[in-house]
Design goal:
mainly alpha
């Protein structure tokens, strides 16, 4: 086996690893909310972050840490100075990975009344501190915004100058889906921002959860498209 063949095999293995990584990111994104709800006996809490205080605690922390580590491992497009592009995908995903790990490490606040209302337990890092809660919210929001940014601006890039006509058509379809996913993530965040303060109980109690679940679904879908797992439907 010559050096050229060795390089080809190595590149193929790297490509397969990247596709698997993207697929895992997509699966975790889509499955996170349903899994947390199912493992907590279908109890609906105010937000996904509140499942930190539920029986799904270990799963919640584990999946967020896994997501962060996957993002650290991700390698996307490098910066292209010829197009005034000074952002490396690796920088963006590393930052997103840091944010999601902080979200797992610094939980949302939960006062005793909420814990008693939902029959939750108070784990060691549970708190009712407004400063810590603000850090949690900023990191969670930043994470969602970065996922929307990746989907809209980075996933739609291409560095393949030798694509066939069929590949270009498929790429256009994927780009359309990436942008739809990014827009849906942003709409979900806007939904939370607007309706959290407008709808009266009991519906307001799960507004954040609904918005987060929808956002998770769509950026998970974007990762699945990126992994070519949906090639069967020509995406």
């Amino acid at each position: 086996m010559n050096k050229k063949e060795d390089n080809f095999i190595e590149e193929s293995l790297i490509s397969d690893t990247h596709l698997t990584l993207r697929r895992n990111l997509g699966i975790i994104g889509i499955a996170l909310a349903p899994l947390l709800i199912c493992l907590n006996h279908f109890q609906i809490l105010p937000s996904i972050s509140h499942y930190y205080y539920s029986e799904s605690n270990v799963l919640f922390i584990g999946l967020l840490f896994a997501y962060g580590l996957y993002l650290f491992s991700y390698r996307g497009y490098k910066k292209d100075k010829t197009k005034l592009d000074f952002i490396n995908d690796n920088w963006v995903t590393n930052f997103a990975g840091i944010l999601i790990i902080i979200v797992a490490f610094i939980p949302t606040k939960a006062d005793l009344q909420l814990i008693n209302t939902y029959h939750l337990f108070n784990p060691p890092r549970g708190h009712n501190n407004n400063i810590l809660n603000t850090i949690h919210l900023i990191c969670a929001t930043g994470f969602f915004l970065i996922m929307a940014y990746l989907s809209y601006f980075r996933f739609t890039r291409t560095d393949n100058l030798h694509e066939s006509e069929k590949e270009r058509i498929t790429k256009k379809k994927r780009n359309r889906m990436y942008r739809i996913c990014a827009i849906m993530v942003l709409i979900s965040l806007l939904f939370i921002l607007v309706f959290e303060f407008m709808i009266t109980p009991p519906f307001s109690q799960c507004i954040v959860l609904i918005g987060e679940a929808v956002a998770l679904f769509f950026f998970g879908l974007a990762w699945l498209v990126k992994s070519k797992s949906l090639a069967i439907i020509k995406l």
